[in-house]
Design a protein that fits this description.
Number of strands: 29
Length: about 550
């Protein structure tokens, strides 16, 4: 086995084995089949990357197919959001398909199954059907309607299609085996009556196919070679194959369903129902709230498609489910933003500094590198003046030897600027320091080449010139849940673990180079973290989101605890 073959995941091994066993490369076709009943989340990213990654690896087409068989929950808004997310992640689909494209074909095939005695209309209530279905250890009982005549079944099924019956009156069931050890094989429902308009077919249909009936048949119509699902669909594979057995033309390719494990993310939930609950209860503002694990939320927060693809590649494809720590996702976005994000100076918790020996009214413009790790990023000019802001936590009146920031009698270097020394401070009535008076060494300017400019001091602080500073709203986002597994407690609801401090809105003071920043622009606020311009931002009122801190602050907190 060569090195490349060893590095394949088990799904790729399946494809390789199929190519050795009779499949041709031109037979390969994959698909990503989301239901448009919500926004895609980080869990979908693995499936997207898997299917489209296989398409790229084998130069094979990948369909984007919307599983739109439930008009009660599906909307065109979700369709457009899903398309935007897949494109943003960097993938192109071969054809855009919808399960609703096949409603007539699926109906016609269902009629054929009725004619073959393999499907029937059941008129029991849902409660009656559940009761007679049995348990995993006890066989089910046949419906009293299971042996209706073919003619009666066809007439009833046509009446269901035409809207002659109210919801719940009848369903169409496959006639398989009520004693099967697989509960899904005990005469599963194929169609139900729903008098609700569909986002594409409007009121053309009054019956809608169930997922299991639609899934394999859609794959067959599209000639998908490998239908890749998450592990909860493993018990469905037997039914997937049974439906195909009734219809497959031996001259056409037969799709294969194969399963891979979900990768759950710590400190979050990915159930669409629960994500919708967060939106409807006002815990978050919208599906694309930057605290949400949706792809649109991650995009708005400042994540990059490269970081999400890298994350998906790192966690890989496996046969067993496990929980991936969200810090790994944060690591990948830090790693990418560190390469591409320009460095800027912003103060979020300002303390005034007055340089008493700097001439009043004087200003100068200092040169600052945009990204020290990328020479092509160039440099910018930053204004310097007598009065500056530094961070409150960067000053103490008294401090031990391990405090390398500003303290009375101590020196620090101002980033790209001069060395300053704290001489005194002014306090308010409550004893809080509101101003620090400093002196500066005029010969210590960074990059000037003087002996004083090469003098080493242990601390370097970021700062902004007060007279030049821009004000902006800065949104400090943190994890939405305080618990690693908010969904895993029998005695508590996941909402009990909502982090009350997941969002803090403050005023930041920015260097003036950020005046022209536009939505989506990404920056490293030096010493503070990575930030991007939010969609709420305007030229008059800039809004920045914190994407991620410079380091994993949660890991430190957990170590303390």
């Amino acid at each position: 086995m060569d090195e490349e073959e060893k590095s394949l995941n088990f799904i790729e091994h399946i494809v390789e084995d199929d190519l050795k066993g009779g499949y041709k490369r031109e037979d390969l076709r994959f698909r990503f089949p989301p239901e448009p009943n919500g926004y895609l989340h980080i869990g979908h990213a693995s499936s997207i990357c898997l299917n489209f990654g296989l398409g790229l690896r084998y130069n094979a087409p990948v369909n984007l197919r919307f599983d739109d068989t439930n008009p009660a929950k599906e909307e065109s808004e979700y369709v457009e959001a899903i398309k935007k997310d897949v494109s943003w992640l960097g993938y192109e689909w071969d054809t855009e398909r919808y399960a609703s494209d096949y409603f007539q074909q699926l109906y016609d095939w269902a009629v054929e199954l009725i004619k073959q005695g393999k499907a029937y209309v059941d008129s029991q209530s849902s409660e009656e059907m559940a009761e007679q279905k049995g348990t995993p250890t006890e066989p089910g009982k046949e419906s009293p309607f299971r042996n209706r005549s073919i003619e009666e079944n066809i007439a009833l099924f046509e009446g269901m299609k035409n809207g002659d019956f109210e919801e719940g009156k009848h369903v169409l069931r496959a006639k398989i085996d009520m004693t099967s050890s697989n509960m899904l094989m005990r005469d599963p429902i194929m169609y139900r009556v729903l008098h609700k308009p569909h986002h594409r077919t409007d009121t053309d249909w009054c019956i809608y196919p169930m997922y299991d009936w639609t899934h394999g048949e859609s794959d067959y119509i599209e000639q998908v070679s490998h239908s890749l699902c998450t592990l909860e669909f493993l018990p469905h594979r037997e039914l997937y194959n049974w439906f195909l057995d009734q219809l497959v033309d031996s001259s056409k390719l037969r799709p294969k369903q194969r399963e891979f494990a979900r990768r759950n993310l710590s400190h979050t939930v990915v159930s669409k129902r629960k994500l919708l609950q967060l939106v409807e209860n006002g815990v978050v503002d919208s599906w694309d709230d930057p605290r949400m694990p949706t792809i649109s939320g991650l995009r708005r927060r400042g994540y990059t498609p490269e970081s999400i693809r890298s994350f998906a590649d790192t966690i890989g494809i496996a046969k067993r489910e496990n929980v991936v720590d969200v810090s790994l996702l944060e690591f990948h976005v830090r790693e990418h933003l560190n390469k591409i994000a320009p460095r800027v100076m912003v103060v979020l918790n300002p303390l005034k500094v007055v340089i008493t020996n700097y001439e009043e009214g004087k200003e100068e413009w200092l040169e600052a590198e945009n990204n020290p790790g990328d020479e092509s990023a160039g440099s910018r000019q930053v204004p310097f003046s007598r009065e500056l802001y530094i961070e409150q936590e960067d000053f103490r009146e008294e401090a031990n030897r391990k405090f390398f920031r500003l303290k009375l009698g101590g020196e620090v270097r101002l980033k790209n600027g001069y060395i300053i020394k704290a001489e005194s401070c002014t306090k308010d009535a409550d004893g809080n320091v509101v101003e620090v008076q400093c002196t500066y060494d005029p010969k210590s300017k960074s990059g000037s080449g003087t002996e004083e400019s090469l003098r080493k001091v242990k601390g370097t602080l970021h700062w902004v010139s007060i007279s030049h500073a821009l004000k902006a709203e800065v949104r400090l986002y943190d994890r939405l849940f305080t618990d690693e597994n908010p969904d895993g407690h029998k005695d508590k609801d996941f909402m009990d673990f909502v982090n009350p401090d997941s969002l803090q809105k403050i005023t930041g003071y920015l260097e003036p180079s950020l005046k022209d920043a536009t939505v989506g622009d990404k920056f490293q606020f030096q010493r503070l973290g990575y930030f991007n311009v939010d969609t709420d931002s305007t030229a008059e009122n800039l809004v920045f989101n914190r994407t991620v801190t410079l380091r994993d602050t949660w890991a430190k907190l957990e170590q303390k605890n």
